[in-house]
Amino acid sequence: MENCFDVISDKDGFIVDVGGEFERIFGFSREEAVGQPLDIIIQENLREKMLAWLL
Questions:
Q1: What Å distances lie between residue 6 and 17, 24, CA to CA?
Q2: What is the value of pTM for the model shown?
Q3: What superkingdom heads the lineage (predicted)?
Q4: Is residue 14 domain-resident?
């Protein structure tokens, strides 16, 4: 998973793991992202639609 930017979340929409390229693409380290809601990486104007689709 080191060469991908995958994001793994739990059923409630909280980040539980990220790929190695995540920091370069989204600007958050693994330590900063894990435990945070998915909406930290989704544009504000798209959040409602994306979260409804993902969860």
A1: 8, 12
A2: 0.76
A3: Bacteria
A4: yes
